[in-house]
Amino acid sequence: MNEMLLLKYGEMALKGQNKKTFEDILVKNTKRRLKGLGKFEYSRAQSTLYIKPLEEVDIELATERLSKVFGVAKICKAVICKKSYDKIVSTALPYLEDALLTAKTFKVEARRSDKSFPMKSPELQRELGADILSAYPYLSVDVHNPEVTVTVEIREEYAFVHAYKINGAGGIPVGTSGKAMLLLSGGIDSPVAGYMMAKRGVIIDAVHFEAPPYTSERAKIKVEKLAKLMSEYTGAINFHCVEFTKIQEIIKEKCPEELFTIIMRRIMMEIAERLAKKEEANCLVTGESIGQVASQTMYAMVCTDAACSIPVFRPLIGMDKTEIVEISRKIGTYETSIEPYEDCCTVFTPKHPKTRPQLKDVEAAQAAYDFEPLIQEAVNSTKAYIIKSY
Ligand code: ATP
Ligand code: MG
Questions:
Q1: 184 close to ligand 1 (CB < 6 Angstrom)
Q2: 359 lines ligand 1 (CB under 6 A)
Q3: CA angle in degrees (0–180, nearest 5) for 243-248-250
Q4: What are the C-alpha distances in Å from 122 to residues 107, 127, 128?
């Protein structure tokens, strides 16, 4: 069957002056996601991107990939018909069978961008409505609140008909809102945080801290796998892997145990900020949620934020764990996140971390050792590589 896809813009349809730029970015993102699936023709009109295959393609796979592209509110799969009324009817009726057999009410919406087509839109609506009624006599027309809306559109080169709309990923296109450096662990939260920022148009770079031999190669592979799963939504991720062992050992040796976690997190932030600057990212992102664990109290966050000069965004800050888990399942990272591998953060976790650390105490404790050369060394020896799904 000769099918095509229509992507209906979400919020970006309202962007006024910026709409063109947003659209250009959306088209680019879409093309990247469809890479390897075949040749397509792209055209745009009325806040819709029309994607027509130019050869045999796996339309289900294309739809699945495009359902993860931000900036799209709805996706319609349509059947392409020759531009004569008879052809439209003979193609549309069988094509719409699944949708019409399960519905009680419907209406037809017609649009003509080719004004030379002999039937005007109201006539087309009436005729096609009547033909559908005679093929599916138990249906009735409801123009106000139909269960199924059959859309027929007459374009310059072809016509198409559709009745299916599935939800798109929502949000705005990745690449329209700057770039972030996401602190990505192997847990449940940080992949969700990355997804949420990408949904608002932000390009995601990621930094992961590992502490071999305390953390294993398997633990790192798990995080890479998470980045790959995220990239179905975010697009390619520039992944940075920082070796953190030496710094952690020195914190353990030189700083008070109860402040271990907070000092470690401050140094992570410092390293992440330097990598962010190198990659021209404008902010840091973490998966923290207030009160979730001892290191995520407001006091602790004040102390970590003081260690860096660019904004730290925490998109999960007000969410319950159950809400985060729900998104994690939806985006497909949950099953990987719960694989039991160690994280560098938990390697030296103190028995009694301070939940109300004071910045001046933390700064004084951290000043017991000059971490600067180690921080710079960690930045310089960071390995960066691209992780992507397609
Ligand atoms: P997550 O599920 O994202 O691991 P968490 O609830 O386990 O979060 P923490 O371990 O306290 O919480 O980590 C808080 C945040 O710090 C994480 O969401 C992540 O952004 C960052 N983080 C923790 N460990 C690492 C790591 N090894 N590399 C990079 N970032 C990390
Ligand atoms: Mg964690």
A1: yes
A2: no
A3: 120
A4: 12, 9, 10
